[in-house]
Design goal:
Elements lengths: L3 E7 L3 H14 L4 E7 L1 H9 L6 E4 L3 H8 L8 E6 L1 E4 L21 E4 L5 H12 L10 E4 L2 H9 L5 E5 H4 L2 H6 L2 E3 L8 E7 L7 H9 L3 H9 L11
Parallel strand pairs: 1-2, 1-3, 6-7, 6-8
Antiparallel strand pairs: 3-10, 4-10, 5-8, 5-9
Helix pairs in contact: 1-9, 2-3
């Protein structure tokens, strides 16, 4: 039977999912997906409060785990990607910089996602703490609602530079505006990203079909194109 699934997806998936949805619908013409993008932490809160999402793609596996513990999602939690963070700017070539460069006086505004509810913001904070810069840069930081909004702040030069998802920096539009510096993975906790079907979507065939589709070679190729990988796959 034809079904529509409401997909809550972390903002770092924006460009990858824009490619994946048409592929899914081509292979599953009877199903429709309604994609809602935003902050993983806020989606978790909304699902806890009964928001009608059928499947939740989080940038942090702990959020769907918490929903399972509270009875708002169904086991298992399935890892679909590991993400990475990068230094990016539309104003300067960030590929020639490092985190230490953020202390330079010409960088008056530095954008990161809000660490309290955006996993990419939490990892940005960890990387800055690892570099001994977090306290020093407090007065320069501006916070995006999610990682896509953070990229927008930098793209519009509301901030000269910032830390965003590799998946966004690899998009053709952003890539044309500036290079990126890949922040070493050992400076922060892993961005292990996972999904779970919600209790609301437990009988939704489209949600389950999309979950199955995400494991196909076709879907994996798109994810790799945007810098996502799984342990058995080649790193970008």
């Amino acid at each position: 039977m034809a079904e529509t699934a409401r997909v809550a997806a972390a903002a770092d998936l924006r460009f990858a999912f824009n490619k994946l949805l048409p592929l899914f619908q081509k292979n599953n013409p009877t199903h429709q997906l309604e994609l809602i993008m935003g902050s993983s932490g806020k989606f978790m809160q909304q699902i806890e409060n009964g928001a009608p999402f059928d499947i939740f793609f989080s940038a942090d596996m702990n959020y769907p785990k918490r929903l399972i513990a509270s009875g708002k999602a169904l086991a298992p939690v399935t890892t679909y990607a590991f993400g990475r963070i990068v230094l990016w700017s539309a104003k300067v070539d960030a590929s020639q910089l490092s985190l230490a460069s953020l202390a330079r006086p010409e960088f008056r505004k530095i954008a990161i996602a809000a660490p309290e509810h955006a996993p990419y913001g939490a990892r940005a904070r960890e990387a800055l703490e690892h570099a001994g810069l977090w306290t020093q840069l407090q007065s320069k930081l501006v916070f995006g609602e999610n990682i896509s909004h953070t990229a927008q702040l930098i793209d519009t030069q509301a901030a000269e530079i910032g830390i965003i998802a590799l998946s966004l920096a690899m998009n053709d539009t952003l890539k044309a505006k500036g290079g990126y510096y890949l922040i070493p993975a050992n400076t922060h906790q892993a961005l292990e990203q996972a999904y779970a079907v919600t209790h609301y979507g437990r009988n939704n065939a489209a949600a389950r079909a999309f979950a199955q589709f995400m494991g196909t070679p076709e879907a994996r190729l798109v994810m790799q194109r945007y810098g996502f990988s799984l342990p058995h796959e080649a790193r970008p």
